[in-house]
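Schema walk-through. Below, the input block comes first and the output block second. Nothing else is stored per chain. Lengths vary across the set, and this one has 134 residues.
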Amino acid sequence: MNILLYGTQPIGKAFEDSMGYLLKHLYGEDYLRATESQDQKEGTDFFICGIRVDVTMKPVKNKVKYLDSFVIPGCTIHVQLRYGNRRHDFKEPVLVMYFESFIGPDPYDLVDLIEAECDKEFFDQILSLYRKHV
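--- output ---
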């Protein structure tokens, strides 16, 4: 198995942590980091306004329902509901934001781009898709 690293950290984890800081800044008390168990067993990186959220730089292929895509310069954000993983179904769906980067694999550059292009109202629009479909 080949794990891509950024520094000493896997790229996906670096992206997840950086997005967590950005969303915590935007949502304050409405943001809560998921536990490691919730991340591994329930596919949840964090909670925003009580909604389970997973952010990723890789496409999610199993047990998902596509909701919408948003194009910003350098990135397309695909929004999906995920109902489970290879091991089991989730008790409640997870809102997945798959960030398809066109600026390269650096997770920090991608989060800088997202921060410059996407304000709280942008993410509120994504959260409203979850509420509309769940």
